[in-house]
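The instructor's notes for this session suggest beginning with a concrete chain rather than abstract definitions. Hand out the sequence below and ask the class to guess, before any prediction is shown, which regions might be ordered.
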Amino acid sequence: MISNSRFQHVLVAACALSVVACAGKRKVDDSGIVQSGTVEQATVESVATVTKVDRDSRKVTVKTADGHTATIHAGPEVRNLDQIDPGDQVRMVYYESVAFDVKVPGAATPGVSIAEGADRTPEGDKPGAMGARMVTITATIEAIGRDPDSVTLRGPEGGLRKIMVRKPEHLENVEVGDLVELIYTQAVAVVVEETN
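After discussion, reveal the predicted structure:
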């Protein structure tokens, strides 16, 4: 017969082995990601018609479908202003999102990074431009709460912040000590289109 003390040791060892076995089954991809998702995303599109172009002052007047008018000063960075004519359509698309990746310890480093880029149409084409900015903040999960679902994050500078989790499935496969990369993306594209 096993003594009570020996039984407790066996029980503790069995529990430890089951925790290790569960940890071994944790889903992790090649880049160390255990969970990904999008918290919010939105795309807004707006179209206006060019009603007047003053090339000397570089002012373009546009009218939206609901009748609002606006005069825009086209700065020197706007090339091909001579390609804009009354009746052309100015289309603007704005995109914004907040996404996340949860990574195992060692797959990322706490910190902040910013990536930006912009481009515009070649000489001689209708004017257009696009730009994007992505800010990534990497923080460490210090605590996971339930009822309500939450995570407490330690930011790159050491501060703690508790964040409510809207979708409980976002906490699946996530553990204290994991790193969260919060990715905030903004992108805008503006093009002038000739109407037929």
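Then share the key points. The radius of gyration is 27 Å. The CA atoms of residues 147 and 168 lie 10 Å apart.
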